Amino acid sequence: MKKKTFCPLDCFDSCAIVAQVEDGKAVKLYGDKNHPITNGFLCPKGYRLLEKVYSKERVTTPLLRVKNEFHQISWNQALDMIAEQIKEILKKYNSSAILYYSGDGYEGYLRNIERLFFDYLGGATYSEGSLCWGAGLLAQKMDFGNSLCHSPFDIFNSNWIVLWGRNALWTNLHLFYFVHMAKKQGKKVAVIDIYPTETFKIADIGLIINPGSDSYLAYGAIKYILENGKEDREFIEKYTVGFEKVKEIASRLTYEEIEKRCGVNKKDIENIANIYIQKPVSTFIGYGPQRYTNGVNTIRTIDYLVAISGNVGIKGGGSNFAHRFTQNIASVFKDDTRAVNKRFYNKAKLGEYLKDQQNPPVEMVYISAGNPVSQCPDSDLVFRELQKRFVVVVDMFLTATAQAATIILPAASFLEKEDVFVPNMWHDYIGVSEKVIENIGESKSEVEIINQLAKRLDLDFPIKSEKEWVEYVKAHFEKALNIKFDKHFVRATKIDVPWEDKIFATKSKKFEFEDEKIDVAVPSIDENKVLKNQLRLVTVHSQKTLHSQEFFERRPVAIFNIEDAKRLGIGNGDKVLLYNGCGGFVVEAILRQDVKRGYIIVEEGYQDQNIETINSCIFSKTAEMESQAAFNSNFVFVEKVTT
């Protein structure tokens, strides 16, 4: 028997999956060949999802932590305890004394029912800001009014494809496939990154720049284009505001400064500029370039380059960062009129918030689809603060965060529930997933858990089954988007080229170089606070994991430049301690000549047996307007570990 579902991972691709079921067990997963974008194949993580579903390490019964040991309890005991804790909090304070943390460990739409539950409770302490992409979203909102992508098929209208900080082979495999097919048609590819990733193998031009220097490169290309009169004057004059300020900044900037900041030469700058002149050029921006304190600024300058070169609103063009096509559609699972006590914390500063908030204090934390101890900055502080509170964690595994829980509720996997999947990172095909297998152990879906909690608290809450919610959500999107769910998936929009009419979603209805809050983006970098002998710590996405979700065994390694390592007395394979005033983490040194000096590269998501993570070394810095965590604006000392 074949059942149809969607990949639950927080990923650009949102793959359509077919599950082969025999005797009630899913025995194989493969890509749905009928899906026009994901095209019948999965990434290595997708193919290994079954191993997670049937893992012997899964939590299959509710667990209660007593003196740092977990004991099995019944669902009735667990839910009664949670309900009683909520009642006590409401007597003592109000519902904002409950903090709700929802991560991106599961991408099904129905998980948002938890937010609706807390709204009905009177509101909770909700998250704002972002760990991963908030700076880029804010940047494109300032420039365009929203962040939208071209149709994946529009890439075949491009002359050049620029992958800017986007290691597509590891993080956006189907885009890599589209790029590969475009190359067969004669399209050219440029890859810009801070080290030679696997995606460089597809590049006609590959450029390695210093971390956090992207805005200088973008402005350098703008400077060259303007000096040579190659800008799109018609677009600039008719459809933009604030250009003269950008022109003035570019004219004052010297190529020598750009070369120094970026670690490139003038010829490299000219090459990038000449690529953008050969329009149409499609630009795909990764989530790495905005993981700095100047992240908003950085993405805006790349947008500027795309706009000035005339690559906005044309076939084969675009500044593709995210695809927020549902931005203006009301959420089914939100009721602000009931959430009278809501307040907000910044995800990047979760530990600090828990430590400092007193009015009222956070008495309870409810965590679902996330692993904040591993994912948030200053992870040691997050762990310590969680341990002081009544913490509910809904998860499939004993993650670093679950180790701090009071109660762990076993979560159903994506194969054990019905759901709707709404991608918002690259393409716009909304999918509906079937329930593929019966629940393993005593696992429950978010809908089942919330329904039972709402009943225990006597809330006037809309109790519906998963199937009923799926139908409700489908009807909601059908009306809002004028679509019809007549199969496993449906395209949500007919927009192949965003902004083709040159009417933007900004206040002026034009592309805005100048923002009323933070003015015009300027070339900037954040190296002015580096201490002697410190190296910048850059955490990157892995091919083998998605954030902290492990799919393959891997050892914690750090990639060093050979000369940096020699200066620090570190040899290849040595165990080294990375540390700063925030914390420390032990890794194995890997030495490479093709990595620039001054920084080290570590894959994100590592967690050792002591609940330590690489984020132990990451302070809770943020990009502009506290839009997201500035993971890569952190610096560490390095010390060889003697055994």
> How large is the radius of gyration?
25 Å
Largest sheet: 6 strands, mixed
Instruction: Give the neighbour order of strands across the main sheet.
Output: 5-4-17-16-15-6
Mean pLDDT: 95
Beta-strand portion reads: 15-25%
Proportion of residues in helical segments: 25-40%
Question: What is the domain total for the residues?
Answer: 3
Distance between the termini: 55 Å
CATH class group of the largest domain: Alpha Beta
CATH topology of the largest domain: Rossmann fold
What overall geometry do the principal axes of the alpha carbons give? Answer: globular
Q: Give the beta-strand count.
A: 31
CATH architecture of the largest domain: 3-Layer(aba) Sandwich
Structural class determined from secondary elements: alpha/beta
Enzyme class: oxidoreductase
Protein name: Nitrate reductase
Domain 4Fe-4S Mo/W bis-MGD-type: 1-57
Keywords: Iron, Iron-sulfur, Metal-binding, Oxidoreductase
Describe it:
By secondary structure, the chain is of the alpha/beta class. The chain folds into three domains: 63-131 and 341-491, Rossmann fold (3-Layer(aba) Sandwich), CATH 3.40.50; 134-321, Dimethylsulfoxide Reductase, domain 2 (3-Layer(aba) Sandwich), CATH 3.40.228.10; 534-640, Barwin-like endoglucanases (Beta Barrel), CATH 2.40.40. Helices cover 28% and strands 21% of the residues. It contains 19 helices and 31 strands. The protein has a six-stranded mixed sheet with strand order 5-4-17-16-15-6, covered by helices on one side. Strand 18 (419-421) and strand 19 form a beta hairpin. Helix 3 (75-92) crosses helix 17. The radius of gyration is 25 Å and the shape is globular. The model has no long low-confidence stretch (mean pLDDT 95).
